[in-house]
Amino acid sequence: MPLALLALAVSAFGIGTTEFVMMGLLPNVADDLGTSVPTAGHLVSAYAIGVVVGAPLLTALGSRIPRKRMLLLLMALFVVGNLASALAPGFGWLVAGRVLAGLPHGAFFGVGAVVAARLVREDRQARAVATMFLGLTVANILGVPAATLLGQHLGWRATFLVVTVIGLVAMAALARLVPYVPVDERQSLGREIRALGRPQVLLGLLTAVFGFAGVFAVYSYLASMTTEVMGFGESTVTVVLALFGLGMTGGALAAGPLTDRALRPTLYGSLAALVLALVAFRFTIHVPWLALVTVVVLGAVGFMTTTPLQMLVMHKAKDAPTLASASNHSAFNLANAGGAWAGGAAVAAGWGWTSPALVGAGLTVVGLAIAAVAGLLDRADTTEGASRVVAEGPRAADRTAQPERTA
Fold first, then answer.
1. pLDDT tens column, 178-211
2. What would the DSSP string read from start to end of 110-157?
């Protein structure tokens, strides 16, 4: 694998750390700024809003900028956002800093995925994208727990200062290791928007919104489940979250080669496995060692969905993939917010701390159904095209030849 993928993974590590660390720092931030923990929770939503808005907006604005320069600009914005968070004089300024830090998230992963795919042979593109995502999963094993401990002992501002330094290191790695990747001369904003509007791209984004929401319906409340249902102490929460991160890493490692071999079967299989794992967690959570095993499995099968979903929208928007690729991360963050809301609504309704697992399974079933419908439509289109070629002869074959492989 090219060393440029290491630079992308380091950047992903920094982004993943700042995205998830706030969940562990909410009590510290609330105490320091004189607000409640539920109010401080808006800082999580502020970052997600930045991602959802920034992914299509910044990708569109940078559609004509060479890819390496675009990555550096996005990482520079990430650094500014985290530095502003560290120096925020009050809660409102911290909200603004979190939105600013979230703005480049989706655009960076969207552009980064396109760059990663261009660095390798076509039959290894999913593995290259999965390698970049490894930085995100390692952040949940090492970055988030370490940054949380740092924030608890030295203050939450120290956490964001350290993330700022990670961003500067990532910029240096990008500048040194990523080669020049020009913008396709045929690429334009109009072309990107038309590609984003293709039915198969939209169905892929909807699959991400519902399918991945099942993960966050549980992950958002995993700390409370650990203490309220599994019976562990608060000191064990970090270990449980790290186990989830280990599962994510294993899922990312497996997803790359599987997606390169068979994209849609990998997507169907990972979503179906996620449904089963979520339903199982509803029962295994009452047996501590089984609960811990299931947490690892949930992380693995949940994150195994991300690479095929990323590659699917890139393939279906292949002649203009950057905006679709970035919008996929907006879809993931909508899934994060929607899953957390649905799981919280179930708990608030009095269904108990295990109810988010079943709610998450229901959401993932919807995502699997959308993926299956998209697959059937794709197969029907392929069959119709093949029939037309047979009926009209060689000229039709020339007109309908597609350079991309079937996804």
1. 998 777 666 667 788 888 889 999 999 999 999 9
2. HHHHHHHHHTS-GGGHHHHHHHHHHHHHHIIIIIHHHHHHHHHHH-HH
